Amino acid sequence: xxxxYRENILDHYRHPRYKGELEPHTHSHxxxxxxxxxEIQIDLYVNGADVVEKAAxxxxxxxxxQAGASMLMERIQGMPLAEVKALGKEDILxxxxxxxxxxxxxxxxLSLKVLKAGIYGLDNIEALDEDDEDW
Amino acid sequence: xxxxYRENILDHYRHPRYKGELEPHTHSHxxxxxxxxxEIQIDLYVNGADVVEKAAxxxxxxxxxQAGASMLMERIQGMPLAEVKALGKEDILxxxxxxxxxxxxxxxxLSLKVLKAGIYGLDNIEALDEDDEDW
Amino acid sequence: MLNIExxxxxxxxxxxxxxxKPLVFLDSAASSQxxxxxxxxxxxxxxxxxxxxxxxxxDLSEKASAAYEQARKxxxxxxxxxxWRELIYTRNATESLNLVAYTWGMQHVGxxxxxxxxxxxxxxxxxxxQQLAKRTGAALKYIPTTTEGLxxxxxxxxxxxxxxxxxxxxxxxxxLGTITPAKAMIAQAHAVGAVAVVDGAQSVPHLxxxxxxxxxxxxxxxxxxxxxxTGIGALWGKKPLLADMEPFLTGGxxxxxxxxxxxxWNALPWKFEAGTPAIAQAIGFGYAVDYLTALGMDNVRQHxxxxxxxxxxxxxxxxxxxxxxPQDPEIRGxxxxxxxxxxxxxxxxxxxxxxxxxxxxxxxxxxxLHDKHGLAATARxxxxxxxxxxxxxxxxxxxxxxxxxxxx
Amino acid sequence: MLNIExxxxxxxxxxxxxxxKPLVFLDSAASSQxxxxxxxxxxxxxxxxxxxxxxxxxDLSEKASAAYEQARKxxxxxxxxxxWRELIYTRNATESLNLVAYTWGMQHVGxxxxxxxxxxxxxxxxxxxQQLAKRTGAALKYIPTTTEGLxxxxxxxxxxxxxxxxxxxxxxxxxLGTITPAKAMIAQAHAVGAVAVVDGAQSVPHLxxxxxxxxxxxxxxxxxxxxxxTGIGALWGKKPLLADMEPFLTGGxxxxxxxxxxxxWNALPWKFEAGTPAIAQAIGFGYAVDYLTALGMDNVRQHxxxxxxxxxxxxxxxxxxxxxxPQDPEIRGxxxxxxxxxxxxxxxxxxxxxxxxxxxxxxxxxxxLHDKHGLAATARxxxxxxxxxxxxxxxxxxxxxxxxxxxx
Lengths: 135, 135, 408, 408
Ligand SMILES: Cc1ncc(COP(=O)(O)O)c(C=O)c1O
Ligand SMILES: Cc1ncc(COP(=O)(O)O)c(C=O)c1O
Hints:
The complex is a heterotetramer, with two copies of chain A and two copies of chain C.
Chain A: H1 7-14, E1 27-33, E2 38-46, E3 52-60, H2 63-76, H3 81-86, H4 89-96, H5 102-120, H6 125-132
Antiparallel strand pairs in A: 1-2, 2-3
Chain C: H1 4-9, E1 17-18, E2 21-22, E3 24-25, H2 36-49, H3 59-78, E4 87-90, H4 93-108, E5 114-118, H5 127-136, E6 139-143, H6 153-159, E7 164-170, H7 182-191, E8 195-199, H8 203-206, H9 211-214, E9 218-222, E10 233-237, H10 239-244, E11 255-258, E12 263-265, H11 279-295, H12 297-316, E13 321-323, E14 335-340, H13 345-354, E15 357-358, E16 360-362, H14 367-372, E17 378-382, H15 389-405
Parallel strand pairs in C: 3-15, 5-6, 5-7, 7-8, 8-9
Antiparallel strand pairs in C: 1-2, 4-10, 9-10, 11-12, 13-14, 14-17, 16-17
Bound molecules: pyridoxal-5'-phosphate (2 copies).
């Protein structure tokens, strides 16, 4: 079977964790990757202690983007906001645990971008992209 | 010594035949090759029997264009206009008697073009060029 | 008939194996692989006779110039141009189409005019016209296509009126495979006084092309899709039109005479080729055309029809697989786009890659067309002279594997 | 110090002999020769990993995309760009300059504005500005140069006023060799609010380049003049400027999202790269930059200074030979233009070709400059990393032979 689709990923794809919308929420952000049509929304409830009390995602897309989002949701439940902000590419790739080429990388990282854009209140996730990658 | 500059060509270059302007003339035309600065004018006196009674060239340029013009003048003295019109690339190249690359070909053929443009009353020798060379 | 096994020997990349599996390359609509003759032509050029062209008075430069211009003649003959002077080198079909938009378009299109484009165009034959419309105040209208991917002929006829200045459409869709009735469409465009721009990026590599018979005004195509190097394409145009056009890019080589405040342009085709051209690539393109000519474009087309017929039949039997575009191989080329159940095309492409099968997934630079069909993306397998029917079997086998993985 | 003998071994073309004579290639200002590393990089690309870039979800395409983008980073670092996103691939320096004229120029220049260009520019850095002036109603004015070929600084200072929107000049003249005081000129341009466009076609191959130190706004250069393949060049620009610019060519790959009547452009640098790019050529360009980086651009420059010093001294002693441009090797590059008595430069080039010496003759795409000096044409010898002092001796010997033939 394809390395890219280890049981772990397929499991998250078929049975996504924390899927849905949150009400009430403190943050909500949605982004769309026009290249593949993937769409992800992430809702957060951050409490007074700046901890992510609850997180959920919705949307649709390929196995990589959906499994990635599901894994990310698992990871950030109960996480202090400061730690969420420090999450990087590596964390997502570690969760997925597979080698990912440049095109699919966009799928894999979509949820992280939505999360960060939501927290930082940016409309355009591309901005993050660019700032990150001058080299 | 360079094949391109056989004694024959150098002789015509140093001692051009029929150099000068004609008065009276029936035809006169001048052209300039901007790429190399070569300039040639050809004056003809064509009589009632449609024969080139006299021909002369003036101008300046590289050895190939000047020798080519000189040889062409020699060739067309006393030639019926119909024969002049039939002159082609090959005739000039035969006179020069050397292999000539594409850039220098423009030098070699400048006088022929001036001659033809003069006869046909064209202002623009490029027109001849293009019509000649669809393939 | 093509001898596919012999052809395959000419393509070094097809000799590779990854994890013991041979490469099944089904993405030639995006870019074809290169035969040794082309690879070596480029290599030899750099090793033996590279020099800048046109102005050099030494052997290397003369040899390079001759080869560069020789290639132009080969390419011009390949599409049955009236003259090699009608063949302009560009980087790719995209630049060719932009050239027409920036020159003929800016000179002849204005407010109140209409530009007609089919609704299944590649972005390369769509955005330049959107931009032209924006810049000139002209209206951009779309020739609709049917669900099957055919030009809606009555709609086209109705759209054609005296305001139409330019009609642009593909001769072969890179998504649906559709071969458009170009000759008739061109005649119709001419009847209302419009100029016809044909996107030949997919058709020129795969079909015999005869611009004189088509009677189109401009034809754009790319070298890299027809065995040639990257970085080279062509625009063919009718001489009188090209002669009347202002130049596009300006600089060295495209002028006859330059002063501080005036310029005289060079003769065709050089008027449109500014600066040092893609010399090695043009030469390689010429070799690519030689290769195709030797095979015979009728044979190339026949092989493609055989491939498509087999693909439509066998892929068509795969449960859950939906193929887009015309079902008749006679009116379609070798780009077969499909979806497979609800497996995302990206996942499908990744799965197939594991089997060393290269297909494309996405909107194939035809996003509006995908939107229109309510799709974000499709998977696309496309064929060329080196593909075999067995490779389609491999594809189907791998699809069945994907079905299992995704529990379709 | 460069080890020229070792370098020469890397260039297959220099191993050739014609009639027993080795090639003396003195036309690198027109286009340089290619080292094996570059030739092989292109060859390997086609043999092993060609596929269209950016959108492919299979190994070949991912490998090609990575190599294509990797090369961009190498080139961007080579000129000390702040970000690889500032580096746009083009066909050549000519296209780079046209891109600026068509985009930044059309957006920011209007009637009453002034464009300043030096009077010794290559047509590539002259005609696009003439065209821009014509299209926008702006005035085009020339920064005069002295008889020796230096920028007339007081005149430049005087021309700079608040109407000046754009200043374009070469960092190294391809005719006179002049290295312009670019950094100061750029600062002066900025002081009046103008944007500074630098033509680096000659300088980037021959000098260390640091765009951050120069502080120019745009820099244009070509791969083929710096050991790279034909068909590839670059435009570097400051990110904020590039970000504000409309795209130039439109089509695939340069968009983020496309609908039937609106588009959203892609991020930098892809916004400016429409269609299938010159993939193999970009990769080869990266290898060329690796080669130069390994030699060290300071060493490259030093070798050139040595060549020029020797040429000025020894050619300068040839009776009847007149050299143009600055006499001080510190402020000039390796393009040495000259006339020899009244021998027409074309005849000279043909004579030298007989000795297997390649020089250029003509106006070197700087016709106005030649007119200004009352010349129709000059002969030009130019040097690069593979040239030796002995080759200058060969040149001089052949010139003496020409003297005899033409009875000078
Ligand atoms: C100073 C200068 N600018 C621009 C160019 C144009 O370069 P390219 O022909 O590669 O576009 C050249 C090359 O001839 C040059 O020497
Ligand atoms: C129908 C069609 N038109 C235009 C293009 C653009 O070709 P290129 O990217 O070579 O400019 C393509 C290639 O993707 C195509 O398939």
